[in-house]
Automatic annotation (TrEMBL):
Keyword Ubl conjugation belongs to the record: no
PANTHER family, per the entry: METHYLTRANSF_11 DOMAIN-CONTAINING PROTEIN, METHYLTRANSFERASE TYPE 11 DOMAIN-CONTAINING PROTEIN
Family of the protein in this entry: Belongs to the methyltransferase superfamily.
Domain Methyltransferase type: 45-138
Species annotation: Rhodococcus opacus (Nocardia opaca)
GO BP terms in the entry: methylation
Protein known as: Methyltransferase domain-containing protein
Keywords (A to Z) from UniProt: Methyltransferase, Transferase
Molecular-function annotations in GO: S-adenosylmethionine-dependent methyltransferase activity
InterPro entries: Diverse_substrate_MTase (IPR051052), Methyltransf_11 (IPR013216), SAM-dependent_MTases_sf (IPR029063)
């Protein structure tokens, strides 16, 4: 079941501002390149949204597939990568990736659909399309970190970071925490992005607590590899 995104589905222009502000030092991709090598391989970016990360993968991958269920974002992504011959954006979801068995080297999902318990079907689908030795990479926000995680927990009191991390560990994922820096062009851009990520009360508090145009945000990177040999069930 596709869960509507509360931010990019409704405010794609503001989310584009957010994408450009996130991780301006490239810490996440630096970590990913060290953990998972997609050079010359095939990458599927599940829940690719407007396709912001597709060109980065396309720089060294032989083939990149953007998978997106929301039609308006699908068209935005196709427009973004229309000039890249090794990228194709297709309609699909985490639980229904329209690719063949054992056809992909890396499945990447960034703040897209994996929130711990209840995501088993998506993980199974990713394992289906991965080749032996391939990797599923799930990048999400670390709600234990100050200050962004505190704002998240204020709006999502039912969200338990420890439960999510325990779920991924039980599913065979490794975990790495990655510190990043977000930097906005001005205070109004910061205010606008906080406004699509949080409730009005929390966004107002977050804006007041953030001097200048930058903030530190920590991510979790979960990686699970598909066994290269016979897997015993």
């Amino acid at each position: 079941m596709t869960i509507p995104s509360p931010n990019i589905w409704h405010w794609p222009e503001w989310y584009e501002v957010e994408n450009r502000a996130q991780d301006v030092d490239g810490a996440i991709f630096r970590h990913l390149r060290g953990a998972v090598d997609w050079t010359g391989g095939i990458v599927a970016d599940v829940g690719c949204g407007s396709g912001f990360h597709l060109p980065v993968f396309a720089e060294s991958a032989a083939r990149v597939y953007g998978i997106e269920p929301h039609s308006p974002l699908l068209e935005r992504a196709r427009t973004r990568v229309g000039h890249l011959p090794n990228v194709r954006v297709i309609d699909g979801s985490a639980e229904g990736i329209p690719l063949g068995d054992a056809s992909v080297d890396v499945v990447h999902a960034r703040t897209a659909y994996f929130f711990g318990p209840g995501c088993g079907r998506g993980i199974c689908e990713a394992m289906r399309v991965l080749r032996p030795g391939g990797a599923l990479v799930v990048v999400d926000l670390d709600a234990t970190a100050h200050p962004y995680g505190e704002w998240m927990r204020a709006d999502l009191p039912q969200y338990n970071p420890a439960t999510v991390e325990a779920f991924f560990a039980a599913q065979g994922f490794g975990l790495m925490r990655v510190e990043t820096r977000w930097r906005f062009p001005d205070r109004e851009a910061l205010r606008g992005v906080l406004g699509i990520e949080f409730t009005k009360k929390t966004a107002s508090k977050a804006f007041a607590q953030t001097p200048g145009v930058a903030l530190d945000v920590r991510y979790r990177v979960h990686v699970r590899r598909k066994p290269a040999g016979l897997e015993m069930l």
